[in-house]
Design a protein that fits this description.
The protein has one domain. A hairpin with a 7-residue loop joins strand 1 and strand 2. It is 41% helix and 25% strand. Helix 1 packs antiparallel against helix 2.
Length: 158
């Protein structure tokens, strides 16, 4: 029995975002793992906390500028966006991971700041894609052919 094209398209549209979230999350997890395995730890400090954007719903965005030492170079700086200004007070010591080659990259060394985004994408993609696959399997499986029924006896004799 041929399945309706609309059902296949609907299931594809339902499942695609979950698959995309999962794949992007896995790529980000692998990227973060590679970064952590090659990064050099350093002890930095917050040198300024700047208001980046004022939102009307009182959820302002701040940028914490973090400075850290690099052997053989002048101290390096990078910015971290945060919605909570109390997370970074000026003068606070912060653990930093950095890679200087091939392109400079710095991140705050807390496990929360490193892994939350990638793992959230994976965690959102798995059930979403799994639910779509489950629906697809349930909707697209072939029904059993009907069994032929016995011919009923006529009510009136012929």
């Amino acid at each position: 029995m041929k399945k309706p094209v609309g059902l296949v398209v609907l299931l594809f549209l339902l499942g695609s975002p979950g698959v995309v979230l999962f794949i992007v999350g896995v790529v980000k997890v692998i990227s973060t793992a590679r970064f952590v395995s090659t990064a050099v730890p350093a002890r930095g400090r917050v040198v300024s906390l700047d208001l980046l954007r004022v939102n009307q719903d009182d959820a302002d965005t701040y940028t914490a500028v973090i400075e850290y030492p690099v052997p053989g170079l002048s101290p390096q700086r990078f910015a971290v966006s945060t919605g909570d200004p109390s997370a970074y007070q000026v003068g606070t010591k912060i653990d930093v991971l950095y890679v200087r080659t091939p392109s400079p990259e710095e991140r705050v060394a807390g496990s929360h700041s490193l892994w939350t985004g990638p793992l959230t994408l994976v965690a959102a993609g798995i059930p979403w894609a799994g639910f779509a696959v489950f629906l697809g399997m349930a909707a697209l499986r072939s029904p059993k052919p009907p069994t032929p029924a016995a011919e009923p006896e006529p009510f009136w004799p012929t």
